[in-house]
Design goal:
The chain has about 190 residues and is mainly alpha-helical. The protein has a domain of about 140 residues: Hypothetical protein af1432, CATH 1.10.3210. Helices cover about 65% and strands about 0% of the residues. It contains ten helices and no strands. Helix 3 packs across helix 7 and helix 6 runs parallel beside helix 7. It is globular.
Length: about 190
């Protein structure tokens, strides 16, 4: 896959701000891939496509969710901000013949996380969270942790996200809870009293 051609496609497809965010996430993901011994090529492809459908209309995304056998209808019961990753994981296969399940999963779960995240899942999840223009409470701590411990950084990000949603009385997609619980188990090793 020619990365320069892909970037040109994305520049046409995304808003200027979304495209620039995508490039920052891609750079961050590539750095994390090097640091944590993951395929830089896979991290680059997944990062470039992570927001591939972010600028699509809600109706287009809804239609893809309804018609794709790969996507659960449950998505439609949650905020539309969660739709673009799963929809992109389907569309990149249709539009670019990308069938690598690990890349597709990293794109699918980049917003919510999930239980048993792969290293690539974690890299895309955290790269999107800590890219250099992100500025919100807790992000600096996660950035610092991501230099040495990918799992702990993902745990911090998942915890911050779940807390943020709950404090605003928003619903939390089940995969976000599963990610938090699984990461907690990996870090703390079980039930705490």
């Amino acid at each position: 896959m020619n990365i320069d051609n892909l970037k040109a496609d994305l520049k046409e497809r995304l808003t200027k701000g979304r495209y620039e965010h995508t490039l920052r996430v891609t750079d961050t993901a590539a750095e994390l891939a090097v640091n944590f011994h993951e395929s830089v090529e896979n991290a680059t492809i997944a990062a470039l496509f992570h927001d591939y459908c972010k600028c699509d209309s809600l109706e287009e995304m809804k239609q893809t969710i309804k018609t794709s056998s790969e996507l659960p209808d449950l998505l439609l019961s949650f905020h539309h901000e969660l739709w673009h990753g799963p929809v992109a994981s389907v569309r990149i296969e249709e539009n670019y013949a990308i069938t690598d399940q690990e890349i597709k999963d990293a794109i699918y779960f980049h917003t919510t996380g999930r239980a048993d995240m792969t290293k690539l899942d974690k890299i895309i999840f955290i790269a999107d969270y800590i890219e250099p223009f992100r500025n919100f409470p807790g992000v600096e701590e996660v950035r610092e942790t991501a230099k040495t411990d990918l799992t702990k950084a993902c745990y911090q990000a998942a915890k911050n996200t779940v807390r943020f949603l709950m404090e605003r009385d928003n619903t939390v997609y089940p995969d976000s809870f599963h990610a938090y619980n699984d990461l907690n188990q990996h870090i703390f090793g079980g039930i705490k009293k």
